[in-house]
Amino acid sequence: MKVNEVPQDALTYYEGIKRACFALNDEGKYVVVASTGSNEEATANGLAVDELAATLEETRRAVLAGEKSPLCYHMERRQMNPDILGKTAGIAVFRVKRHFRPDIFPRLKPSVLNRYAQALAVTVEELRTVPR
């Protein structure tokens, strides 16, 4: 894309803040150009956000039904996966996955809950529940 082709659609997605894009200048070199985004980009981002929200709602319902632990919900809310959560909390991935079981999670030691809470930026009380 050339410098004069960088989209400048007036979007509310970025709330008036421009972002950097790379484009070719007249000399054929890549330069940074400010962009307010494009309608296509806003549509794609909107669809991705909707899909994340639907997945999170599905997980929330599974927690309320007793199929998963609240840890799953909070992990997905932070857009993490078991690998990232394990590394952030300093807990082995196989243990993280085990803690997704609703029969195991309530028996976790306070020290483990504190590590998860810190990694997920929530309190221990919030970690034990999901929104109704």
Hey, roughly how much beta strand do the residues contain? Answer: 5-15%
Q: Helical segment tally?
A: 6
CATH topology of the largest domain: 434 Repressor (Amino-terminal Domain)
Determine the fraction of residues in helical runs and give it as a percent range: 40-55%
Characteristics:
2 strands; 132 residues; 434 Repressor (Amino-terminal Domain); elongated; single chain; two-stranded antiparallel sheet
List the helices and strands and how they pair.
Layout: E1 19-24, E2 30-35, H1 39-64, H2 70-77, H3 82-89, H4 93-98, H5 110-120, H6 124-127
Antiparallel strand pairs: 1-2
Helix pairs in contact: 1-2
Question: Mind explaining what this structure looks like?
Answer:
The protein folds into 2 domains: 3-37, no CATH class; 54-127, 434 Repressor (Amino-terminal Domain), CATH 1.10.260. Helix content is 48%, strand content 9%. The protein has 6 helices and 2 strands, in the order ββαααααα. The longest helix is centred in the middle third of the chain and has 26 residues, at 39-64.
Give a summary of the structure in a few sentences:
The chain is mainly alpha-helical and 132 residues long. The chain has helices at 39-64, 70-77, 82-89, 93-98, 110-120, 124-127; strands at 19-24, 30-35. Strands 1-2 form a two-stranded antiparallel ribbon.
